[in-house]
């Protein structure tokens, strides 16, 4: 699962990100980039060709009512206010996904507040 930092790395043509992304695709993986994450980064498709190319190989799940309520509850428990990071943490924990992020501490803080469910997700810091 990609957070905003991963999408920005794609947009900026970060070589290490693209290598990891290609490897994941070649192994049969389908990365996730939640709709709120895309909204945080997307500004002008005519200038974001690299990002558009990367997103074409991703699933982009929506933030539905049930997920939104889970995110809100997590934000209250964690005493933080970023619904985008919260959505990443909740869905990644539900799926047991690896989160590629430029903010590993923030994401880990949220996962820690999900209790045992949060331990199903793994944080992978962008390098």
Helix content: 55-70%
Give the strand order, joined by hyphens, for the main sheet: 1-2
- The value of Rg in angstroms is 14 Å
CATH topology: Rossmann fold
In percent, how much strand structure appears in the residues?
Answer: 5-15%
- The CATH architecture designation is 3-Layer(aba) Sandwich
Give the count of structural domains: 1
Task: Give start-end ranges of low-pLDDT stretches.
Answer: none
In CATH, what is the class?
Answer: Alpha Beta
Termini gap: 16 Å
- What is the H/E order? HHHHHHEHE
The number of distinct helices, counting runs of at least 4 residues, comes to: 7
CATH homology-level superfamily:
5'-nuclease
Mean pLDDT: 96
- Choose one word for the global shape: globular
Structural class: mainly alpha
- By DSSP, the count of extended strands is 2
Largest sheet geometry: 2 strands, parallel
InterPro entries: PIN-like_dom_sf
Protein name: Twitching motility protein PilT
Write a concise synopsis of the structure shown.
By secondary structure, this protein is mainly alpha-helical.
Write up this protein.
The protein is mainly α and 127 residues long. It has one domain: 3-Layer(aba) Sandwich (Rossmann fold). It is built from seven helices and two strands; from the N terminus they run ααααααβαβ. The protein has helices at residues 4-11, 15-26, 35-41, 49-55, 65-78, 83-95, 104-112, and strands at 98-101, 122-125. It has a two-stranded parallel sheet with strand order 1-2. Strand 1 (98-101), helix 7 (104-112) and strand 2 (122-125) form a beta-alpha-beta unit. The protein is globular. The two termini are 16 Å apart. The model has no long low-confidence stretch (mean pLDDT 96).
